[in-house]
Design goal:
globular; about 35% helix; alpha+beta; 16 helices; 18 strands; 4-stranded antiparallel β-sheet
Length: about 500
């Protein structure tokens, strides 16, 4: 039998109220740290900010070292190509061999603000209980919440109740390309990771937190059709050859039926069968039809506007979105109504669902388009390629990990979180889902629905930032308890 001291050591939940009081006492310090982070314009896509990206990564490195982490900075460049990408931080803190090991992800890059708001975008301001500044919500505040939460255990002279690993990158807005390169040399980093917690993305409601357990995958395809290299006049030569634009439209439109459903048979066979468990969780999700109309500017929606069908089709079934048909010929006169473009590029995206793989989708669509083209018998040349391939991810909302995250949310917000699957794709979710298939991953957003990511009005509420620190303290304490219960 354990003595009382050992029980207390293994039950950090008994100290949560003291830790929360410590958070309240350090609020001003948390805000100052956020101001400092926002003041660093870590825009990874713009070369002129490269030094600031490195500066922000260095700041994170220093914070982790002060918390006792062993930090490794890994080159993010592709060794086979001449690239100039920022490095990636891998850090770990081993507290106790008996404890669960969690992996935390953070990114410090963000999209450049509009020219008319620079440089004020990098000066954090507060108005009506919200902090404004570029990158403040996506993803600097959520990342700082982790640093702040860990520091509270140190100030309280308590052991951090889990072993913690960090991955921090600066190319999240470029499909995490530096992380993909760096991770190849750090595959052993994930060997003992049991849980992954991502505090990315946004909540679907400003008042009620959520837990996300699914994202669709993404294949972005380009289909090019070309004829000769010369400018062609429609009056003189129209009818004498196949027009690339018409060929392109014909092939792309043949991928879907009149209802917009994909008709590639091989591709559809891979779709996961919808189970009773899936249906149970689907019915728990919220779908505000009128809100969707407002956000999209549409007056009517497909599937008769039925909530359950909308949720299913926009989150759990594959879809095809045609993005553009572009004239790629430099010789064609776009202003001349008699000119026929000789090179056309169609861009379209395919969203994937569980059981589907990007690599297989490339082969499946490639074969289908090849067969269509053969039957079409055009004299023109065509090319088909995939520029982005990300697999879907689906977690288990019934797992102990999700129960621990739910318990943490209840202890801070006194509400039951909403459970959500998303129809969009987040590269890091796909990457970690692939690289760490044995780890149980949860997405627990700290940012609110109305934080306006990627705009000049980006912000995060004071409430969500401070409570975010408490949430992560509670989460680590709840995960600690899983050390002493049977895994599901």
């Amino acid at each position: 039998m354990m003595d009382s001291g050992e029980i207390e050591r293994k039950s950090p939940k008994t100290k949560i109220s003291d830790l929360f009081k410590l958070v309240d006492k350090n609020t001003d310090s948390f805000i100052d740290k956020l101001k400092e982070a926002v003041s660093i314009p870590s825009v990874a896509k713009d070369p002129k900010y490269r030094a600031d990206v490195v500066k922000m990564l260095k700041l994170c490195e220093e914070k982790l070292k002060r918390l006792g982490f062993l930090v490794t900075v890994v080159d993010g460049n592709d060794k086979s190509r001449n690239t100039d990408l920022p490095p990636v931080i891998f850090a770990e803190l081993r507290v106790n061999e008996e404890y669960k090991t969690i992996c935390v992800y953070g990114n410090i890059d963000f999209l450049a603000p509009e020219p008319d708001v620079q440089p004020s975008a990098f000066t954090m301001t507060e108005k009506e209980g919200r902090f404004y500044g570029s990158g403040v919500s996506d993803n600097k505040a959520p990342l700082l919440c982790w640093f702040n939460a860990l520091k509270m255990f140190k100030l309280a002279k308590m052991d951090i109740p889990v072993n913690v690993k960090f991955i921090i990158e600066a190319t999240s807005e470029s499909y995490s390309v530096s992380l993909l390169n760096a991770i190849e040399s750090k595959r052993d980093f994930f060997g003992d990771v049991e849980f992954i917690c991502l505090t990315i993305d946004r909540r679907i409601d400003d008042d009620v937190p959520c837990l996300k357990y699914g994202y669709r995958g993404l294949c972005h395809f380009l289909f090019n059709v070309s004829c000769g290299e010369k400018k062609v006049h429609g009056g003189t030569y129209g009818g004498a050859f196949n027009q690339p634009l018409m060929d392109t439209v014909h092939i792309v439109s043949s991928l879907i039926n009149k209802h917009g459903k994909c008709v590639v048979p091989e591709f559809l066979k891979d779709v996961k069968t919808f189970t009773e468990e899936d249906d149970k969780w689907c019915k728990k999700e919220v779908c505000d039809v009128e809100a969707i109309k407002r956000e999209t500017g549409l007056t009517s929606l497909s599937h008769k506007g039925i909530k359950s069908r909308l949720i299913t089709h926009k989150t759990r079934l594959p879809s095809i979105s045609v993005n553009s048909f572009s004239i790629k010929s430099e010789s064609a006169d776009r202003e001349n109504i008699a000119s026929i473009p000789n090179k056309i590029e169609a861009s379209f995206a395919v969203r994937l669902v569980p059981n589907q793989k990007a690599s297989r989708a490339l082969s499946q669509f490639g074969r289908y388009i090849e067969n269509l083209w053969s039957r079409y018998q055009s004299a023109n040349d065509c090319q088909f390629e995939m520029t982005i391939g990300l697999d879907p991810w689906q977690g288990n909302p019934s797992s102990n990990h999700y129960k621990a995250a739910e318990a943490a949310i209840k202890s801070v917000y006194n509400v039951t979180p909403k459970y959500v699957t998303e129809g969009n794709t987040i590269p890091i979710v796909s990457i970690l889902g692939e690289k760490c298939p044995g780890s149980n991953m949860v997405v627990m957003p700290i940012s609110g629905k109305n934080d306006n990511h990627h705009t000049k009005c980006e912000s995060i509420s004071r409430n969500n930032y401070i409570k975010g620190v408490k949430l992560l303290i509670a989460y680590m304490c709840e995960v600690h308890e899983l050390t002493f219960v049977a895994s599901m």
